[in-house]
Amino acid sequence: MVNARNWKAILRSRADKFGLSEAGFDYVESVTQSPPSRVPTNSSGQNLIVDYASRKMGHTMQLESLSVEAGFAEMLEFDDNCLGYWAQPAPFWIACTGKDGVKRNTRLTFDFLVLYYDRVECYECKTESDLLRLEEKIPLRYKKNQSGNWSSAEVEPYIKNLGMKFVIKSEAELNKILLRMRWRRKTGQEGSLNPNPKIDPKHVQEKPT
Predict the structure, then answer these.
(1) How many distinct structural domains can be found in the chain?
(2) Does residue 174 belong to any structural domain of this protein?
(3) Which end of the chain, N or C, is more open, meaning fewer C-beta atoms within 10 Å of its C-beta?
(4) Of the candidates 89, 100, 83, 54, which has an alpha carbon nearest to the alpha carbon of residue 166?
C-alpha cells in the first residue's frame, strides 16, 4: 500500500488550526515525508514485531504487537478526529534529569506523532508496570497525577513550545478505550471512537503544492 495523501498541502491548509511554531511546523512536515527514525527490534526476546497494515495511512508500519503500540495504532484507525499518524518519528534532544540527578541532553524518540484536525500530539506508549518503575527512577520525566493520568514535567514544556502536546498513554488507560471500541464493532455499531467528529474528513483541504 502507498499513501497518496498530500500531507504537505494538508499541513499548510490547516496551519492556523494547529497553532504550531515555525520549528514545530518544520518538524511535523519533515516527519510526514520521512520513514520511521528507528526500526523496532526484539533484542529482549519478549516481544513480537509485526507489519501493521493501516488503512488510514495507506501503508504498513512495524510495531511491537505485544506492547501498547499496536493497540494504540488500532485506536487511531477508528478515531474520526485523527487525520494521520506516524510511528517512531524523528527524535528530539531534550534536557532531562537522569537517575543520578544530573540533567543532560537526552535523545528521545516518541512512539507516535499524531495529526488531528485541530492539533498535533506526540505520544509515548508504555505498560503501567513500566511507568511505575520509571516514576521511581526518574520522577521528573514520569509522574502519575491524582486523576490517574501520567505526565512529564521535563518533556511537556519543550513540546509545548513547538505548538504540540506530549501525552503518555498507559496500557491501563488504553485497554478501557479498546474494550469500548471493540464492543461497538462487535455489536454492529459504528466502530469510531468519535461518532460525531468535530470536522467532516471531506472538508479537509488537500490542494497540490
Answers:
(1) 1
(2) yes
(3) C
(4) 89
The reply to whether 209 falls in a domain is no
- 55-101 tens-digit pLDDT: 899 888 888 766 688 888 888 988 889 999 999 999 999 999 999 99
Contact 66, 46 (CB under 8 A): yes
pLDDT in tens, 104-125: 999 999 999 999 999 999 999 9
Domain for residue 3, yes or no? no
Q: Supply the range of the domain harboring residue 113.
A: 10-195
Dihedral sign of CA atoms 77, 79, 83, 84 in order: negative
Cα 86 from Cα 38, distance rounded (Å): 12
Which one-letter amino acid corresponds to residue 93?
W
52 found inside a domain: yes
Task: Give the bridge partners for 123, in sequence order.
Answer: 112, 167
Nearest to 26 by CA among 185, 169, 177, 164: 164
d(Cα 63, Cα 51) in Å, to the nearest integer?
7
Helix ranges, the chain (H)? 7-13, 15-18, 22-32, 68-77, 128-137, 155-161, 171-186
**CATH number of 180's domain:** 3.40.1350
